[in-house]
Amino acid sequence: MTRSSQAFRPRALQVLLVWVLLELAAAAQVRTGHEILLVSWLRTAVSPVVMTAQAAVRSADDLLWGLRDFRRLSVENGRLRRTVATTQARLHLLAAELEQHRMASRIVSSFPRLDLSSSVATCIRRSLGDGRLAIDAGAPRGVRRNMPVIADAGLVGRVVRVGRRWSWIETISRSGAAVAVAGGPDRTPCLAVGTGGRTLRVEYVPRRAPMVQGVELLTTGVDGLYPAGIPVAKVVRVREGPGAFLVVEAVPAVDLARLQVVVLVGGWSGAPDGAATP
Amino acid sequence: MKLAVAVVLSFVVQWILGMPVFPAWAQGVLLPMVWVVGPPMRHRTQHVFLTGLGLGLAWDLLFEPIIGPGAIAWSAAALIVAWTVRRVGKHSALSWGLLGAGGTVLVAGFRFLALIPLGRAAPPPLVQIAAGTAGTGLLCAVAALLLGMDLPGRVRRYRRGRLR
Questions:
Q1: Considering only residues 27 to 66 of chain B, which have any Cβ-Cβ distance to chain A shorter than 8 Å?
Q2: With b meaning 16 or more CB within 10 Å and e meaning fewer, what string describes A81-108?
Q3: pLDDT, tens digit, for every residue of A91-102?
Q4: Which of A145, A267, B87, B101 could connect to A115 by a Cys-Cys bridge, CB 3.0–4.6 Å?
Q5: Using the beta-carbon criterion (under 8 Å), do B45 and A5 form an inter-chain contact?
Q6: pLDDT at A1 > cutoff 60
């Protein structure tokens, strides 16, 4: 190959480039409709890129809005969760309060002789081994020492210690606690004494008293602490002892282990209570 | 300088051939084709592409509404003609004529191809192509014969004889 022939051959790429530039220049001189052909070509070439970019921008915008909405919904969801939790807690409190009111109304309906100075309290702590209960009522709510405390089934005990927010109750089953009671067809007076266990010991029951199993013992009021006519216990066992009196055992009318709501007896009308007295 | 004047003169004559006085097929004769065929036939192949490009641009400026397709067509024709000359190797007047005719067809074809993307492609009448091909080929052959006759040398020799 001669030198002249080598110089004759221009590079194909350069030739093609020149031809492309000439074609573009020609396209810049041609008008198609309302625009230049070159602009139409550029638009055709660029439109996929522009459309892709626009789609990407729209997608990014949608994604941002979605993230904002998700964040807003998350915050709203958290707020609603807290609201639901609060509402559920209030609901539980209201349910407990409603149950307390039901029990209180049942107690009040069981004892028509209660007057309006009586108040309702909830048992917040039990110390049955020690024979004491704590309630959520204190001196500001009118609780006084030695106030009788009853439940729906009968006598619970009396207030022995009064605090500002709570008070302590001595139950009738506490060892040493005593209640003047009477029972049987002839209302034999006797004394129900706590043993520290689940039963009461009924003392001073004469041998000839008609005291049998199942007799309900009611307060007599002679002890000056409890008003008369409140159920205290039911006789479960009667036997003769070595002394002058019968050996009688009774179980409290109130299930002290399941006690929740009590009524502090503020006053007791003197009229006979048909519901409470046998 | 003489060559530039000759090129300009060829374009002027080409312009005149396009006038309504002349028949329509006359404008199909491509006079500048001589400047495409001549250099490679005379072993001057260094600037064939640029020569064709320049002739095409001048053609577009003078005779076409759009500048560009003519330049592409003329430069492509110049490249192919030069490549053919190098492959064939014959430099006779017949070769000149055949290359001129082929160059005319190439210019018309490449111009048609270049106009397709622009939406302006329209095949020229066959009569015009045939007449242009024949006329251009004949023109190139005549140019080869004239060059072979060495007219300037003859004129110089004639003048020297008269002076004696």
A1: 40, 43, 45-46, 48-49, 53, 65-66
A2: eeeeeeeeeeeeeeeeeeeeeebbeebe
A3: 999 998 888 888
A4: A267
A5: yes
A6: no
A27 interaction partners in chain B (CB closer than 8 Å): 68, 117-118
Contacts of A44 in chain B (CB under 8 A): none
Which of A79, A111, A142 is the C-terminal boundary of a domain? A79
* Lowest-pLDDT range of A105-109, A196-200, B140-144: A105-109
ipTM for this model:
0.82
Q: How many domains does chain A have?
A: 2
Handedness of CA A257, A262, A264, A270 (dihedral sign): negative
Residue A85 in domain: no
Assign residue A124 the CATH number of its domain. 2.40.10.340
Considering CB atoms only, which of A4, A10, A22 is closest to B68? A22
Please indicate whether, in this complex, the C-beta atoms of B68 and A32 are within 8 angstroms of each other: no
Residues A124 and A244 in one domain: yes
Q: Note down the domain range covering A258.
A: 119-264
Shared domain for A64 and A134, answered yes or no, is no
pLDDT band at A53 (very low <50, low <70, confident <90, very high): very high
> Which tokens is B63 given?
């005779």
